[in-house]
Structures are given as C-alpha cells and as structure tokens.
C-alpha cells in the first residue's frame, strides 16, 4: 500500500448520476459477504400495505420512465417511512415504494423501485468492484438531489441549498469557501473539470468558471491529456447528461445512468475512462480512479444514512418543504 501511495500523482473522480449502492452493487453480497449489499429478503410496504421484496429484475432502460423522487421531501419519506418530522422518529428505510407511487406509477408500478441489477448484468462495474476496492460507506452529502450534492463535490458545501434550484455563489461565500480547483491552484497544483461537451455540462459550472477557462476541458481533452502525459493532479469527469446529436449527424446517448437513461451507455463510458488511464503504463501506476454517484436517485437502499458534522449553513423549512430546518447534520443515502 505504501508503495502505491508513494507513486500517486493523479486523482481522477468520475461522478455518475442517481443510482443507489444496492441497486447497482447490492447483488454482489451473495458471493462477497463483506460487501454491504442485499440479503435478498429486504422489503418495503406499498400504498396498499403489501410488502414488496427486493428482486434482481432491474433492466437497462424503460423500467423507470417515471423519474423516482430524489428531492428532499421525497428522500425524507424514503428514509423515515412517512413518520412526521419531530423528536422520536426513527430512520427505517421503509418509504421507497410509497415515495415512488407519488410519481405517477400506480401501486403496481411503484414496486419497480425495489429492483436491482444482478452482477452479470453490469459486467464493467462488477469487474471493477471485484478486482479493486468498494466503499461500503459512501453516502451522498445531502438527502436530496443533484445540484446541491455536486456542489458538495466541488466545494465541500452547498451553501445552505438542498434543492435543484440553480443558485449563484456570492463573492462573500466564495471568499469564505473556495472550490477544490481554486485551492489546488493556490497551493501550486494542477486541477481540471472535464465536462462532456458543449451541449452537456452540469449547471454547477456557472459557479465554478470565475474567468478561469484553464480549469475546464471537454471529455475529448481528457482523452488527449491522458495520452499526451498532461493529466492534472486532480481531475473531475462529468458524463454526458442528455441524448443529443453527435459528430457526423449521429446520436450520442446520455452516459450518466440517470433514470431512465440507458445503463449500458454508462457502463461503456466508465470503461472508456478506465481504459484511457490504463493505456499508458506510467499514468496507470500513478493514478487513483474513484467512481462515485452524486446521489441515489430515489432507488432503494437498505443502509440508514449516518449523522455527520454540520457545516455552517442551515436550510430553512421553506427550502426543505418538510416544515423543519435541515442543519446538514446527516448524510444522504
């Protein structure tokens, strides 16, 4: 381990979208008991009171056409099973099916939220998980949606936001909490965020740009930097967030794995990032690749999110839509 750390020169973070640990890797527990996945008997009640058991019936596209709720109130329902906010309620992870039923699925359709992928259906992710290391305890920063969780990835805070509203960071906020890219540059290191292309980039980039185009590049530039030996010390890679026309009139598929985008397109993208790092021996032996998901996307997971050290912000009851303040003192799913 020490030899590997001594060789470490590059960290690459690839952040995918809206899939839970159990949904993607939970099926590995049967063969690898140390992985905190599924036993196969986990259940959730539906709106009729019938218990729905997890099942290895997830498909690549078409099953989650109704986007599962992953906004703060929906995640609160998923974690606490519908118990009203207040003292004494206990997180039980019993509200996922009920939550999905609010998205227009009907009672029977809401059962799909309990489906997961058997390992053989995800050959890339399964191979990486079993050949390398898996974080059993990786939780999203907020029990909420994409934008605020991605802000945590770049800043270590969402500046009090828990929703999908695009927010602009003030100069006073920026002076108090710099992005990881600004910190790297200030410390004499190199860093870059690689968005997919001009038609697909996170809304969070508007807060990061700050007249520093040298900190940004497209995925094509990531490939070029890997092959030319110019990969920064810290890289953050974004997948393609939407289906859109590509070069030569072809169609590019979204690769982020956000429901209901094709999961195998994301598998191929993960493999592409991995292979670009591996293609040059010197880069391979000096790079750590972390594949993470911004949040669970409303999909079932059995692990109760832990408490955490609060930051300096508090989300108002209006922002959480639950009638209580959120003090950023617990993690997401």
Short note summarizing the structure:
The chain has helices at 2-7, 21-25, 72-80, 96-109, 123-131, 146-155, 171-176, 180-186, 205-208, 219-228, 263-278, 281-284, 317-320, and strands at residues 10-16, 43-45, 51-53, 191-195, 216-218, 234-237, 244-245, 251-252, 287-293. It is of the alpha/beta class.
Characterization of the model:
- The structure is a single chain.
- The chain is α/β, with parallel strands linked by helices.
- The chain is 31% helix and 11% strand.
- The chain contains 13 helices and nine strands.
- The strands form three sheets. A five-stranded parallel beta sheet has the order 5-4-6-1-9, sandwiched between helices. The protein has a two-stranded antiparallel ribbon with strand order 2-3.
- Strand 7 (244-245) and strand 8 (251-252) form a beta hairpin.
- Helix 3 (72-80) packs across helix 4.
- The two termini are 30 Å apart.
- 39% of the residues are buried.
């Amino acid at each position: 381990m020490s030899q590997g750390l001594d060789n470490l020169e590059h960290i690459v973070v690839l952040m995918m979208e809206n899939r839970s640990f159990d949904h993607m890797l939970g099926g590995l527990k049967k063969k690898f008991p140390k992985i905190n996945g599924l036993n196969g008997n986990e259940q959730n009640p539906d709106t009729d009171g019938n218990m729905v058991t997890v099942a290895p019936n997830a498909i690549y596209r078409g099953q989650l056409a109704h986007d599962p709720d992953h906004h703060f109130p929906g995640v609160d329902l998923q974690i606490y099973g519908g118990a009203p906010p207040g003292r004494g309620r206990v997180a039980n992870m019993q509200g996922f099916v009920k939550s999905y039923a609010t998205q227009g699925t009907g009672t029977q359709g809401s059962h799909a939220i309990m489906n997961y992928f058997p390992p053989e259906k995800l050959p890339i992710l399964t191979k990486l998980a079993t050949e390398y290391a898996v974080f059993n305890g990786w939780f999203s920063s907020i029990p909420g949606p994409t934008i605020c969780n991605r802000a945590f990835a770049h800043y270590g805070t969402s500046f009090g936001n828990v929703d999908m509203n695009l927010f602009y960071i003030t100069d006073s906020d920026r002076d108090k909490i710099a992005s990881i890219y600004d910190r790297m540059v200030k410390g004499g290191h190199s860093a870059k965020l690689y968005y997919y292309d001009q038609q697909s980039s996170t809304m969070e980039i508007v807060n990061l740009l700050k007249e520093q185009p040298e900190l940004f590049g497209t995925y094509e530039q990531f490939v070029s930097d890997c092959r030319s030996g110019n990969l920064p010390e810290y890289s953050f890679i974004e997948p393609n967030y939407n289906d859109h026309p590509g070069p030569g009139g072809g169609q590019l598929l979204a690769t982020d794995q956000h429901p209901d985008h094709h999961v195998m397109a994301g598998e191929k993208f993960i493999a592409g990032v991995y292979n670009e790092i591996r293609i040059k021996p010197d880069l391979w032996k000096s790079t750590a690749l972390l594949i993470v998901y911004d949040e669970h996307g409303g999909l079932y997971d059995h692990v109760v999110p832990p408490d955490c050290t609060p930051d300096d912000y508090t989300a108002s009851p209006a922002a959480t839509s639950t009638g209580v303040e959120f003090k950023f003192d617990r993690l997401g799913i």
